[in-house]
């Protein structure tokens, strides 16, 4: 605050040393209005200028102090005719930054080009509208939760101009009729929420009179330190807009503790300097709207609209007191046909530039327009100066990337929310690129599957490894057949044992002998099948280590057969001789013991072969 006062004092001292007029141009009347109802100071100056000299005049100079120029966010000048409801204004006049010779060094100059030269004796009504950010300073700079916010505005009661002014007046509009103090000059009147200075007559060039207004204002001081707006154009019918906000309350900084309980009980008293919600004015046909931050979706939002607008009321996760920060993202879609048009063989996007939240001042605004892949011959038309650059963005199925137009603007206010145009050429055939990529991808995938299913991917049939594999497969097949024969033989052995049990129960010797005869015939047939398999294994080099196991199992099974036949013959002969049961058991006991041992050995060898 002290630094700002010093700069103002130095500026006024320099102006006091400078009084000569710039030309014969005279401002016969100045009517200024300063609006302090928001954090952006908006000044409207209605000038009636007259040419009292002989030479025609084609431009009017507008000076601003350096301390004002750095806060100047918006400047526009128009000519006007009539008064009240019949008042009409022209389109904005060309304005450029100039540096006229012989002028005070503490001023920044802008030149307004008139629609036509002003001849001798002619007059013109000129309306100059300006917007300044950071022109209101909190005083005190720190307050508690229960305090109200006080702001200080400093300026001049006189219109600073290089031209003489015949009559001028000033009106300062406040947000509410509560003022701590204000500068009182001659012809000063305070009524309601408005302070009026003047009229003042016959003022020389560069006249000034310092004024300061210390007033109450609890309006939101929402400042976006950075806002990145990404506008992605899809020729499939949608314009997707994504806005990333880094927001801070730039008002009087909050000191002391914060009580959520007191805030919820009396928010107008215990949180008057904070803001709990903001309203974004979106286009009327916005859809698929979301509001989220790093944590996730924020449900404290409301949406309503009509045929002319869509209003999105967003509430941060906590009330925003002075110095507090938050980050969030807003996204929504728009129908393409409402914003994309054709002209002179080109397509052009016509969409708004600035922030949709009216109360927010954006310190650094970045607008990225992502055009479809294949767009070329790109040009941009913006109604105010911006920094322009190019970038590339890759998305799904992109090959060379999508061209991105990057526009940067510092100190952006609601007045910058104007329409701008991005012109480019785009071939309709490019629309088929991504569908054809998908179709081609699936086609080649299915083609590869068909080729794979029908192709013979085996190793060459003449290679040693392939021949060795075939031989090993033959060895395994022979082993499986031998194992099956052995299991069949063991099954026949079980039938012989069953015939002996039937003999002990029925005493039918002839039936028992018939069962043995049948078993002998089946075992002989199995032996015939076994001989060629054994010959093959004996001749195969791959089965050299296995043949001994096979020989053992065959030999053990043959011995098992012989012991079973001996047992069977002994039992049937004993039954024919009508020997006693104990006598028969004693005679076959050693044979039965050997049979059990052989059966166990055969089972073990078969398990080994099965594992192989």
TrEMBL record:
It is found in: Endoplasmic reticulum membrane. InterPro entries: Ribophorin_I. It comes from Solanum pennellii. Component of the oligosaccharyltransferase (OST) complex. Subunit of the oligosaccharyl transferase (OST) complex that catalyzes the initial transfer of a defined glycan (Glc(3)Man(9)GlcNAc(2) in eukaryotes) from the lipid carrier dolichol-pyrophosphate to an asparagine residue within an Asn-X-Ser/Thr consensus motif in nascent polypeptide chains, the first step in protein N-glycosylation. N-glycosylation occurs cotranslationally and the complex associates with the Sec61 complex at the channel-forming translocon complex that mediates protein translocation across the endoplasmic reticulum (ER). All subunits are required for a maximal enzyme activity. The gene is LOC107018017. Belongs to the OST1 family. This is Dolichyl-diphosphooligosaccharide--protein glycosyltransferase subunit 1. The chain crosses the membrane at residues 436-455. PANTHER family: DOLICHYL-DIPHOSPHOOLIGOSACCHARIDE--PROTEIN GLYCOSYLTRANSFERASE SUBUNIT 1 (PTHR21049:SF0), RIBOPHORIN I (PTHR21049). Keywords: Endoplasmic reticulum, Membrane, Signal, Transmembrane, Transmembrane helix. Residues 1-23 form the signal peptide. It is a single-pass type I membrane protein. Pathway: Protein modification; protein glycosylation. It comes from the Eukaryota.
